[in-house]
Design a protein that fits this description.
- The chain is α/β, with parallel strands linked by helices.
- It has one domain: Alpha-Beta Barrel (TIM Barrel), CATH 3.20.20.70.
- The strands form 3 sheets. It has an 8-stranded parallel beta barrel, surrounded by 5 helices. Strands 5-6-11 form a 3-stranded antiparallel beta sheet. It has a two-stranded antiparallel ribbon with strand order 1-2.
- Helix 6 packs parallel to helix 7.
- The longest helix has 17 residues.
- It is globular and about 50 Å long.
């Protein structure tokens, strides 16, 4: 139904406007009590799907990647579509509008998206107020908090922004993701260099270790890193003792694209990223000797795509563009495919 009826209609309109329209529609359906129907349609309940990773129990290994529910607006409703966990953000200390519109583009022929959103979000404190409605216990949605820096914050002061977000979210998320790999905030990717990245993660780990209970901290990396840089990432994870890595963010590559919007600047996601993100997962897993968990994300449009990432070394997977193109049936298909293995 989604691919045959709903998607063709939604794809007639501007993608960013459709995003807000869809969120409003889901919220309305929830208020009418109809969103629970989606839970029965798309959720696969089976103990065999449970995964324990970096000390957390996931009801299934398929999550929603950061970027869709930036502001923690619909995490409960989205979890009813079958996701095992929801990652919110990227959040920054202060609210920011992001980059000028138009900044989100469909590449239909490539089953892809290009975005240059620029960390548009309501600010971390607003998200915290929404997350307070997600208490521990029955009905708790497992949440990852993806954190970044404000555009106006110079790189030499970036650590402070990450600290602010860490402190604000600590009581309300189950794990953290440090985002230094978005191509849409000027100079952000410079923080992926070994020295500044090690300093940033050590600072967050120091704050983490001062807490009564530590929260897993993960690093989200770009698919455009060289093998040498990936070896640096392995060394950084070992040195800082963070919990794991999310591989990968969007790419600045445009290789092999055929769609009209292929020349737009920003981060590319979707099918063109499938192979490279899996390569990065396999490299990290093999070269590290499976020393840390990896969440695999990038170009998952079929159940087989997800299985390839799990077999390459990922412990969990996340969807974003594939979810937009394929709909919630993809979540169900992946979980059922895992059960068939």
């Amino acid at each position: 139904m989604y691919k045959s009826l709903i998607r063709p209609l939604l794809f007639k309109f501007d993608p960013e406007k459709v995003h807000y329209f869809t969120f409003s529609s889901i919220r309305l359906l929830s208020r009418l009590g109809l969103i629970s129907l989606s839970k029965s349609l798309y959720t696969v309940e089976d103990k065999r799907l449970e995964r324990e990773v970096f000390g957390l129990k996931f009801k299934n290994p398929v999550g929603l990647a950061a970027g869709l529910d930036k502001n923690a607006v619909l995490y409960k409703e989205l979890s009813n579509l079958g996701f095992g966990f929801i990652e919110i953000g990227t959040l920054t200390p202060k609210p920011q509008d992001g980059n000028p519109k138009k900044r989100l583009f469909r590449l239909r022929e490539d089953s892809a998206l290009i975005n240059r959103m620029g960390f548009n979000n309501d600010g971390v404190e607003v998200a915290v107020e929404r997350l307070k409605k997600n208490p521990k216990g029955k009905g708790h949605v497992l949440i990852g908090g993806n954190i970044g820096k404000n555009k106006v914050t110079p790189n030499e002061d970036a650590v402070k922004d990450y600290e602010i977000c860490f402190d604000a979210l600590y009581d309300y998320v189950d794990y953290f993701v440090v985002n230094v790999s978005s191509p849409n905030t000027p100079n952000l990717r410079e923080l992926q260099d070994k020295e500044p990245l090690t300093a940033l993660l050590k600072t967050l780990q120091y704050k983490n270790q001062a807490r009564p209970k530590q929260k897993p901290i993960l690093l989200k990396i770009a698919p455009d890193l060289t093998d040498e840089q990936l070896l640096d990432i392995i060394d950084i994870v070992k040195t800082t003792k963070i919990a794991g890595v999310i591989a990968t963010n969007t790419t600045i590559s445009r290789e092999g694209l055929v769609s009209e919007n292929k020349t737009e600047t920003g981060g590319l996601s979707g099918k063109p990223l499938t192979k490279r993100s899996t390569e990065v997962i396999r490299f990290l897993s093999e070269k590290s000797g499976k020393a840390f968990p990896i969440i695999g994300v990038g170009g998952i449009h079929t159940a087989d795509d997800a299985i390839e990432k799990l077999e390459a070394g990922a412990s969990l997977v996340q969807l974003y563009t594939g979810f937009i193109y394929e709909g919630p049936q993809l979540i169900k298909d992946i979980n059922k495919r895992i059960l068939d293995l």
